[in-house]
Task: inverse folding
């Protein structure tokens, strides 16, 4: 088995990866990525000597646009699309997903994400938890892993773990950070998912953001847990101490930037981290969670 990391070049290099997995029996892809960067992925697949139609299947960790936006293009080339059962309906009819995303990204929707077209239901397979798919001579195990999103799977192939977003993101030697956009963040479920993935005892981990980590898989997952709990507790603190929404946002940004700069000295790496996980995006999901828990409202 060969695992090729494909860089989507999403505005900057090394922010979003798909993994092209090659055996003597064929090809599969982990993560479709956004539609806006599809030409970059097509070119890289061809540089390895393959055509898009050679890809037998695409495994999606979840249906957020940076992971699943281009799935329809691979389906049009004949690939089977594997996804969490809660995500299948949004691939068949992405209108609700797109409407929700447009509220956040507004007039940047097209430039950031491109299109997302419906996929015929016959080309989508909704995996069961712990189901094993035998494909191209490999066994791909699906593991339900909510916390970042309720429709999230991580995939195991032998000692290799493809963790999507539930394992956190890391660029080069930077810190492992749990991405916490609204509205599905669930700290308890996330910790349970990390426990479950750690119990698999994989050696290698491949987060979608970005690339195979130099860390052992379980060390990576524990770093994710530690930093998730740290930023979650800091979010609760600033919410309690703040008298307005803007004050809470500003205070979290101070905490978040200090955290990043304590771990990152290289300015270009810091820029990459802020592109893939901006302060406001991480604050929004944690704030939504804690405001609900505390019964508070920030005006």
Result:
């Amino acid at each position: 088995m060969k695992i090729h990391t494909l860089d989507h070049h999403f505005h900057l290099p090394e922010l979003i990866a798909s993994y092209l997995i090659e055996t003597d029996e064929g090809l599969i892809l982990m993560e479709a990525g956004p539609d806006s960067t599809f030409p970059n992925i097509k070119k890289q697949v061809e540089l390895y000597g393959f055509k898009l139609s050679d890809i037998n299947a695409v495994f999606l960790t979840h249906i957020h646009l940076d992971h699943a936006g281009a799935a329809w293009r691979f389906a049009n080339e004949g690939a089977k699309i594997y996804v969490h059962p809660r995500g299948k309906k949004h691939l068949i009819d992405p209108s609700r997903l797109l409407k929700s995303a447009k509220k956040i990204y507004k007039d940047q929707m097209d430039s950031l994400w491109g299109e997302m077209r419906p996929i015929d239901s016959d080309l989508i397979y909704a995996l069961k938890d712990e189901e094993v798919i035998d494909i191209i001579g490999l066994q791909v195990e699906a593991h339900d892993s909510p916390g970042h999103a309720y429709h999230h799977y991580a995939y195991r192939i032998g000692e290799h773990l493809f963790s999507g977003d539930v394992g956190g993101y890391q660029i080069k030697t930077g810190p492992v950070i749990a991405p916490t956009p609204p509205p599905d963040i669930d700290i308890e479920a996330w910790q349970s998912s990390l426990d479950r993935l750690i119990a698999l005892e994989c050696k290698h981990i491949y987060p979608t953001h970005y690339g195979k980590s130099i860390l052992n898989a379980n060390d990576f997952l524990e770093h994710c847990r530690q930093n998730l709990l740290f930023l979650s507790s800091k979010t609760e603190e600033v919410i309690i101490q703040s008298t307005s929404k803007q004050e809470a946002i500003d205070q979290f940004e101070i905490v978040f930037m200090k955290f990043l700069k304590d771990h990152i000295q290289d300015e270009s790496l810091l820029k990459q981290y802020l592109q893939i996980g901006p302060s406001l995006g991480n604050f929004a999901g944690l704030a939504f969670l804690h405001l609900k828990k505390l019964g508070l409202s920030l005006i």
